[in-house]
Every structure is written in structure tokens, then in C-alpha cells.
Amino acid sequence: MLRRIGVTTLIYWCPLYLDYSAQLPIETTGVADQFGSAVHELIYRMLSGDHKGLFDTEEDLAWSVLLESFPGAVESSFTEQVVKEMLNMARAAKRFAESYNPSQFEVKFEYGFGSDDVLVIGIADALGENLVLDWKTGSFMAESHRQQVKIYATMLWRLGFLQLPATLGVVYLGKAGLEGSQAESNVFQFTEAEAVVVEDFVQQFLQQYSSGNRRPRVSDHCSFCPYGRWCRKTVKDVQTNQALRELWRLQEQAGLIQKQLAPGFTEGIHLTEDFVVEKKGSFYLKVRRKNGT
């Protein structure tokens, strides 16, 4: 049966992770995810003009997106601060985009890399003839983000949506949201020769996966993997892992939004109908059956 997997799933580069995600799919519904989606939606509407003049100001548009993302939210000093943070991020993205002039936004695509079993799917936040930009609502810069946008570019090139060489950029909006400053970015050039290397690597990985290679691959991603309790692999220096500290900070902020912005919103990570994953303490997850067994 043909499987569709996202690029963000693929860059775990772990066959066992792909297996687990197929057998026990996880759907995150935490407030941090909702906030990130709201920021992306606001950026899309501001850059594409998709609001079609229904709102007088960018502030009106931001409030509209907030209420759509968090039904039941009420106006307060806290929600005003959240809207301000969303606007700071969206405006920073808009200023950055104006320097590169992308022509399309939120472009969805899929490509099989020659596999008969898997289709890889992606979304380009901003796309031009020789440009791919990806927005990140955090501030931690990771090599996997560069890998992600390289895979996007390779797929778009093979599909005929992108000309190479191209400019690729990962744009970090976290500090801009908190301080109203400029976006930070990792911008680099990407050539056809590099795209061929990326394509070959992904093809080999998918071929190994299809052939039954299910051995786990340990990497920094293990720190975040919700299937780690079954895999039982560990990563050294987890307590000093900068990316993990960033995640903890976002979780703490999400808890505030949960309590003050939308009290009726259900926090947590939900699995299939039979299982649920709950956060314990500051980070740990526990799996149990919904009926308590």
C-alpha cells in the first residue's frame, strides 16, 4: 500500500521511526502547535493578500486568525500580547520576503523519489522561480532545517516548479516575535549537483526501508521522538541539548496560553482511538489505554 510521509518525518532518517509512525500515528494537538499554525496562517494571508480586503488593518487580521485558531478566546492583556507576538513574527517574515520577492505561498507538493511504496509530501512556505523559504516560529537553528529545505528544493526541481541554482532560506522568527526585531535566517545557494546528491541519498534510504531494514538510527532527533520508550535508545548529554531546552521553553509558554487564552482547549498528544500519550513532569511521556488499563 502506498504511504505518504512528510519531509519532517523523513528527516529523522530512522526506518524504525517510519514503522512506528505508520503503526501508531501521532497527532499533536498542543497549544504550541496551534500557535505555530496560527503564525503561518497570518504570514500567508499577509503575503498573499488572501484576506481580500475584509479587514482594515493587520491587527484586525491577526485577531481574526487568533480567534479562528483558538475558539473561545477572549480579549485580555494576555491575548493582546499574543496577538502582538504573532504580528511581530508575521511582519518580520514580510520584511524578509520583500527582499526576495516570492510569487507563491503555502505550495503543497509530493514526489516519490523513485519509490513504489512511499510518496514524500511537503509544503513550501514561500516559493519563487529560484527561491524556497521556510518559516520557523522558534529561534533554534538546526542542521535538520537545512536538510528539510534542501529536500523541498530537490522535489520542486524534479516536479518542474523550481529552477536551479536557487536561493534557499530557513527564516527564524522566534526572537522577532518576542522583541519585534528582524528575523534571523540561514540563507544559502543550492545547485543541481547538490540536488542530485540529495535525491540519491533519499532514494537509498527509502530503498533500504522498503527492503525491510528496520534497525533504529540514533541521532539528536531521539531526544524528541515519542516512540523512544519502545526503541529504548538514548542520546548523550540530553540535559545540555540546546534544542531540547528550546522545546521546554516552548512547552512552558504553551502552558500559559492553555490556561489564559483558551481554557477549554485540550492539551496533549493524542494517538489512535485506543491509546493516549500524556506529558508527565516537565517532559516525560506515558502511554496508557484510554479505558485506564
Structure description:
The structure is a single chain. 44% of the residues lie in helices and 20% in strands. Strands 1, 3, 4, 5, 6 and 7 form a 6-stranded mixed β-sheet that branches. Strands 2-8-9-10 form a 4-stranded antiparallel β-sheet, with no helix packed on it. It has a single domain (3-289), classed as Lambda Exonuclease, Chain A (Alpha-Beta Complex). The longest helix has 22 residues, at 77-98. The chain is globular and about 55 Å long. It has 293 residues and is of the alpha+beta class. The chain has helices at residues 7-10, 15-23, 31-48, 58-69, 77-98, 143-158, 174-179, 192-210, 228-231, 242-260; strands at residues 3-6, 27-28, 104-111, 118-128, 131-136, 166-172, 184-190, 269-270, 275-280, 284-289.
CATH topology: Lambda Exonuclease, Chain A
Compute the gyration radius: what is it?
20 Å
What is the arithmetic mean of pLDDT? 80
Distance between the ends: 32 Å
CATH architecture: Alpha-Beta Complex
SSE pattern: EHHEHHHEEEHEHEHHHEEE
Query: DSSP strand (E) fraction?
Result: 15-25%
Tally of extended strands? 10
Q: What is the overall silhouette?
A: globular
Q: Return the structural class.
A: alpha+beta
In the CATH scheme, the class would be Alpha Beta
By DSSP (H or I, 4+ residues per run), the number of helices equals: 10
